[in-house]
């Protein structure tokens, strides 16, 4: 664990992955729970950083809104394919049509019906195949997904923790951060980003290029410049950092 102290709040923009970073990963995606201490820390950070705090996730924006309520933050969902900025606008530059979603749903349905424990998550513009309950099926799931997207243009397969996700390659977590950094209140600040999974590497790369601080949560190969040993370790650091800002008396 080599996490630096947070610098003065007005100098940084904070970007956070959700699953595995702000919450422990659960057996089922719906079973995760945001701890009250983490939620409080997010509220303090958003206040002290002039609202330059955003969630960058593979989930849909509305799911994050529900999980962090009553707090509302800018959220980039589905790995940057959806993005709501701090003005509550949905810039459409990287938005995409989702005709391929129905095609992939139909192609992967037989496998999911045949094998108990597999979950097919159909989002607005991606399809995710979760195999956490059947890790021995990883190779079969991978081949099925690769076959399913083989004749589709501009669709890429992202490998996450016990999940494979087919999505358009027009946006990723890195492009989401670039887009936020071009707008207030993020503009002119130094980006910090924390994430735990392979899909966070695009964001680490962008943050490194912008001279920011990239934090890999948990084990695994990474281009991030800093690391936290676990989700719990990262959250301790985050909560303590927020508390120090609060004790400065400006919240
Ligand atoms: Mg994650």
Key traits:
251 residues, alpha/beta, Rossmann fold, Alpha-Beta Plaits, 2 domains, 7-stranded mixed beta sheet, 4-stranded antiparallel beta sheet, 11 strands, 35% helix, 20% strand, globular, binds magnesium ion
Structure, briefly:
The chain folds into two domains: 9-93 and 171-250, HAD superfamily/HAD-like (Rossmann fold), CATH 3.40.50; 99-168, Trehalose-6-phosphate phosphatase related protein, domain 2 (Alpha-Beta Plaits).
Report on the structure:
With 251 residues, the protein is α/β, with parallel strands linked by helices. The chain has 2 domains: 9-93 and 171-250, Rossmann fold (3-Layer(aba) Sandwich), CATH 3.40.50.1000; 99-168, Alpha-Beta Plaits, CATH 3.30.70. Helices cover 35% and strands 20% of the residues. It is built from 7 helices and 11 strands. The chain has helices spanning 36-48, 61-68, 99-114, 138-149, 173-181, 201-209, 231-250, and strands at 12-16, 53-56, 75-77, 82-84, 119-122, 127-130, 155-160, 163-168, 190-195, 213-217, 226-228. A 7-stranded mixed β-sheet has the order 4-3-2-1-9-10-11, sandwiched between helices. Strand 2 (53-56), helix 2 and strand 3 (75-77) form a beta-alpha-beta unit. The radius of gyration is 18 Å and the shape is globular. Bound molecules: magnesium ion. The site of magnesium ion has 7 residues, from loops.
């Amino acid at each position: 664990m080599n996490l630096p102290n947070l610098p003065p709040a007005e100098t940084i923009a904070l970007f956070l992955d959700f699953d595995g970073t702000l919450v422990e990963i659960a057996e089922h995606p719906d079973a995760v729970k945001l701890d009250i201490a983490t939620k409080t820390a997010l509220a303090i950070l958003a206040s002290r950083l002039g609202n330059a705090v955003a969630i960058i996730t593979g989930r849909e924006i509305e799911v994050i809104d529900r999980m962090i309520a009553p707090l509302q933050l800018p959220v980039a969902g589905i790995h940057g394919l959806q993005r709501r900025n701090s003005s509550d606008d949905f810039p459409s530059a990287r938005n995409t049509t989702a005709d391929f979603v129905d095609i992939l749903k139909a192609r992967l349905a037989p496998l999911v019906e045949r094998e108990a424990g597999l979950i097919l998550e159909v989002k607005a513009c991606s399809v995710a195949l979760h195999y956490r309950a059947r890790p021995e099926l990883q190779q079969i799931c991978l081949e099925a997904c690769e076959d399913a997207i083989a004749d589709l243009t501009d669709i890429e397969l992202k490998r996450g923790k016990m999940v494979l996700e087919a999505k358009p390659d027009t946006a990723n977590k890195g492009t989401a951060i670039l887009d936020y950094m071009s707008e207030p209140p993020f503009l002119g600040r130094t980006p910090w980003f924390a994430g735990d999974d392979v899909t966070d590497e695009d964001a680490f790369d962008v943050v490194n290029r912008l001279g920011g601080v990239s934090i890999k949560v948990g084990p695994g190969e990474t281009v991030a410049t800093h690391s936290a040993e676990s989700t719990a370790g990262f959250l301790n650091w985050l909560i303590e950092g927020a508390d120090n800002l609060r004790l400065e008396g400006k919240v």
